Amino acid sequence: MISVEEAQEQVLSRIVALDTERVTLLESLGRVLAADVISDIDVSPFDNSAMDGYAVRFADVRDASEASPVTLQVVDHIPAGVQPEIPVGPGQASRIMTGAPVPDGADAVVMVERTRAGSNGGSTGGTVEVLRPVTPGENIRSRGEEVREGEAVLLAGETIGPAAIGLAASVGHDTLLVRRRPRVAIVSTGDELVEVTVKPGPGKIRNSNSHSLAAQVLQAGGEPYVLGIARDTEEDTRALLKRAPEFDLMVTTGGVSMGDFDVVKKVLEEMGKLDFWKVAMRPGAPQTFGTIGGTPFFGLPGNPTSTMVGFEMFVRPAIRKMAGFTALARPRVVATLNHDTKKKSDRRYFLRGRLTRSPGGGYTAAISGNQSSALLTAMHRGNCLISLPEGESFVAAGTEVMCIRIDIEEGTA
Amino acid sequence: MISVEEAQEQVLSRIVALDTERVTLLESLGRVLAADVISDIDVSPFDNSAMDGYAVRFADVRDASEASPVTLQVVDHIPAGVQPEIPVGPGQASRIMTGAPVPDGADAVVMVERTRAGSNGGSTGGTVEVLRPVTPGENIRSRGEEVREGEAVLLAGETIGPAAIGLAASVGHDTLLVRRRPRVAIVSTGDELVEVTVKPGPGKIRNSNSHSLAAQVLQAGGEPYVLGIARDTEEDTRALLKRAPEFDLMVTTGGVSMGDFDVVKKVLEEMGKLDFWKVAMRPGAPQTFGTIGGTPFFGLPGNPTSTMVGFEMFVRPAIRKMAGFTALARPRVVATLNHDTKKKSDRRYFLRGRLTRSPGGGYTAAISGNQSSALLTAMHRGNCLISLPEGESFVAAGTEVMCIRIDIEEGTA
Predict the structure, then answer these.
(1) 3-state DSSP helix/strand/coil percent for chain A, to nearest 5?
(2) A141/B259 Cβ within 8 A
(3) I need a labelling partner for A391 at 20 to 30 A (CA). Which of A37, A51, A305, B82 fits?
(4) What's the gap in Å between the CA of B121 and the closest CA on chain A?
(5) Mean pLDDT in chain A?
(6) In whole angstroms, what is the distance from residue B244 CA to residue B185 CA?
(7) Which of B33, B154, B226, B375 is the best residue to mutate to test the A interface, defined by the most A CB atoms within 10 Å of its own CB?
(8) Is the CB of residue B121 less than 8 Å away from at least one CB of chain A?
(9) Which ipTM score applies to this complex?
(10) What CATH architecture does domain B20-43+146-179 belong to?
């Protein structure tokens, strides 16, 4: 048996980030940037007002107060988006809106709340009384203050969220260069499998793994391609597995246990370069990893829970690495286990569990359903995998245990 | 001014969940179930083996041990997916694979590790030695043990993750009835806006809000429809706003501040039933909410950060409620503020900040960039909004503050 970490390291050491593609801003959401995003403009592109108010000359209003307001002639009214043509001379001011360019001559903006309209309601041709002094440059955002043309606003390797999209748009990018999402082929194996729409006859079960896996692939940032069920014949298995090179990754379920009727292993040994591991974990001990025609290949066990846990431990980090992410481990938290648990001491247990936040700020972890179920109920109700270490055959209630959060993304604080 | 909570309550009291639609399993990922998912089968559908081993009669092997093994005649070999036809009589056993149906006569399964092959390698026609006793029913999963036909495995209102998809597939569902995702129209307003591909001339800025908003809508579980830029004329504004009834929700940015050149407000008052709020928050105080032709309408302020924060506070909860979610508030954590902050005492501040987990398990919060920026840099680098309450004009470093996590979903522990 090899440890979980050993298996994970071997997998990740043989996985590399994919090539890049250019996509629209909306398509880039959640992807990893493959090139710095460079600004084609100064931000701000021009000196502009941070407030609705009056553009003034500092020298005119340095002594303004409620008690002795300074009266200025209003010479212009500047909305956002309009280039002012009338300069502000001594004793003058221009009404100015937030974001509008500051006119020549003015070197500060007085907030409208600190003025009182004089003649003509404080509009052009009338007057305004300034009730407070300003400092030079007050309420003015200077050209290039935040970013200069040619500077990067986003860096290669960053994950793209809504704010990064807005940021890229504001400096001239309507597409972005990102890492490609891995195309992941999904194959289920076994004579016992029937499609979901078929009512299983005696000895048959439905192929649910293709569906849960497709959802896991999508959630991990890959593109799932469900190729179907390979029957327990060498021909059938070979026909599906040989399609591996059409994809960036292939995942199969079932067919690699010690059972006598597993032909997948034989075909795999013939077609690929593969390791058959017994990983010191439960569920999901038998794991196959290698390549078929150069494409990374994962053979997960066929029990639905084992499939999902195996995906979490080995396939998801691989997909994330291919997609360019650097954070590859799900967030972990320490929680207080709320029940005694017996286990085999030779392997790590990943119990399907539910974390709840205690009023004190810590976490409590409880199993989220029957752990030997053929159904995914406990996985569905859970939000974590409670990790019980090798070397222990009993973990008492109240013990602090490590929990792997499967409800939030890698890299989250 | 009204409080953030008052505004949120008023919004949510006027929003209802949308109708339902039937979608494929993969399309249902992340959606809210609108009907219980009922099993059409017993699970397990038949008594089956939980192990690779031998199906035996308890009475035959009750005294088996390493020292005095019990030798049984192997009469059959049952792979998964095949209905056995040969019963197990006294003194007999059948080789059985995990998941295979238990043959008549057998009432327990001995793990292969607790047997030794006898004649013919333990295969059919040969013998097997059983080295340990079993209990009645050991390693057998009984028919209907987990779910009976007609029982629900998932309930209306639950959020669909990969495990729920696998669970639904295993009980016969290849489509699911879910709440419809809100179709959200996005309109930017302002003469100062140019499209992203245009280099802004004097006084102009790029329309980045449509892009960041589209990404926020998608991430919230809605479908964004970017309708474009409404110029500051009544005709142009009216032409776009009158399209509201084509959608489930309309969001505009800009045009509802106190600025003189805002025509949006005038058109809104003529076309819709709207409230113009000054919310006691910064950024994002001016918020408009109401309906146009029956469609909920949000008017967010035009500054990119104000737009995003306003979306978080008011539009996202509305989208989530429409999509059927019951958890509408982002997770909150208490964190230690790492720097002194001055503020106006009449409103709540939402600083763009970054939470980091302290070694002790608590959180520290720091601002993630220039808070008065015209760019979304601080929003991009942040993972939370640091909430500084009304009534305070200074919050000292070391104070415990509430942070709204914008990096993880509502309802997360």
Answers:
(1) 20, 35, 45
(2) no
(3) A305
(4) 13
(5) 94
(6) 7
(7) B375
(8) no
(9) 0.90
(10) Alpha-Beta Complex (3.90)
Cβ of residue B90 closer than 8 Å to a chain A Cβ:
no
Q: Which CATH class is domain A4-18+181-322?
A: alpha beta
For the domain covering B332-405, report its CATH number. Answer: 2.40.340.10
Subunit contact A200:B26, Cβ cutoff 8 A: no
Q: Closest to B162 (Cβ–Cβ): which among A171, A303, A308?
A: A308
- In the block, residue with structure tokens 């997360």: B412
With an 8 Å Cβ cutoff, are A212 and B165 in contact? yes
User: pLDDT digit string (tens) for A43-69?
Assistant: 888 899 988 999 999 999 999 999 999
Per residue in A206-261, pLDDT (tens digit) is 999 999 999 999 999 999 999 999 988 889 999 999 999 999 999 999 875 545 45
CA distance B97 to chain A (A): 6
Task: Write out chain A residues lying below 8 Å of B100, CB-based.
Answer: 192, 203
A330 interfacial to chain B (CB closer than 8 Å) = no
d(CA B304, CA B8): 21
- A380 to chain B, closest Cα gap in Å: 5
Give the count of beta carbons closer than 10 Å to the beta carbon of residue B338.
15
CB-based contact A80 B376, cutoff 8 Å: no
Nearest residue in A to B77, CA atom: A260
Dig out the tokens for A57 from the structure: 């000359």
Q: Domain B48-141 maps to which CATH number in 2.170.190.11, 3.30.160.20, 2.30.30.30, 1.10.340.30?
A: 2.170.190.11
List residues bridging with A108 in a β-sheet. Answer: A56
Distance of alpha carbon B16 from alpha carbon B319, whole angstroms: 10
Q: Do the chains contact at B206 and A373, CB–CB below 8 Å?
A: no
Identify the DSSP state of A182. P
A130-175 tens-digit pLDDT: 999 999 999 999 999 889 999 999 999 999 999 999 999 999 999 9
Q: What's the pLDDT score for residue A113?
A: 92
B108-124 in b/e form (b: 16+ CB < 10 A) is bbbbbebbeebeeebee
Sorted by where each begins, the domain ranges of chain A are 4-18+181-322, 20-43+146-179, 48-141, 332-405
- CB interface of A with B, residues 358-387, below 8 Å: 361-363, 370, 372-377, 379-380, 382-383
From the list A157, A148, A127, the residue with the least C-alpha distance to A54 is A127
Euclidean distance between CA atoms A263 and B79, whole angstroms: 12
Judging contacts by C-beta atoms under 8 Å, the chain B residues touching residue A208 are 166-167, 169-170
pLDDT digits (tens, 9 = 90+) for B252-309: 998 755 454 578 888 888 999 999 899 999 999 989 999 999 999 999 999 999 999 9
B366 neighbourhood in chain A, CB within 8 Å: none
State the alpha helices, DSSP H only, in A14-157.
58-61
CA distance to A24, A79, A167, B397, per residue, from B196 (Å): 12, 21, 11, 40
Within 8 A by CB and 6+ apart from A84, the residues are A76, A78, A94, A100, A101, A102, A103, A104
Backbone phi, psi, residue B340, to 5°: -65, 145
Task: Tell me which residues of chain B, numbers 218 to 257, contact chain A at a CB-CB cutoff of 8 Å.
Answer: 218-219, 224, 232, 257
What is the C-alpha separation between A336 and A329, in angstroms, rounded? 21
Is the CB of residue B167 less than 8 Å from the CB of residue A376?
Answer: yes
Question: A322: closest CA among A408, A407, A254, A220?
Answer: A220
